Amino acid sequence: MDQQYNLYTEADQLMWKRLYNRQMEILPTIASKGYLEGIDKVKFVADHIPNFAQETNPALRALTGWEVYVVPGLIPHQEFYTHLYRKQFPASSWLRQPDQQDYLEEPDMFHDSFGHVPLLSNPDFCNFMAHLSEVALRFIDQEDALQRLSRLYWYTVEFGLIREEGKLKIYGGGILSSAGESLYCLGPTIPKLDFDLSQVLSTPYYIDHYQQHYFVIDSYEQLYNSIQDLEDNLQTYVGT
Prior knowledge:
By secondary structure, the protein is an alpha/beta fold. It is 48% helix and 10% strand.
């Protein structure tokens, strides 16, 4: 499936610019350094929607070997993890409408691209994604294991926090693409838990409101190293 860049309207371009500028007013002081550096590396700007084929993918391939792979929307687990295993990050190409500016039931291209793609320029983060997908495909027929892997993805790739120079920063794409949660998640009354693989795998999540707590890593390398025993850990749940 192609992005069909020529089909984006002036209203689409304006929506991207509005969303981009809104986030970039607040993220420079609260987002992970790796994410902010990635914004420049993948050539994201406010002035136009990213062109995957001409701009984003050539930059990503040169940096980490990854690329953006356009999908129509949410896709089945096996298809999703297969793309990740092939170093292809599934992303929607449609953009939200004005009345959806603050809330969407299904992720659009702003969430998928602005929220996630910049960190695909970071090798340690990409190593984590690759290992996660490799394990997921080995457990693809085990529903309980897939549910726990979804928790791991949710509390890291979507809603993860990281310590940098003694301060909490955001790296989860679900937060980075949300104006409200970007500010909410760092509030002093919101629990921040040190990342622990077993605890993450056993902690359910909810999709219809802000998170009740967040898990914090110390580095992307630590995140990758922490899941080296992911397969053994999952086997304790599925009994294989």
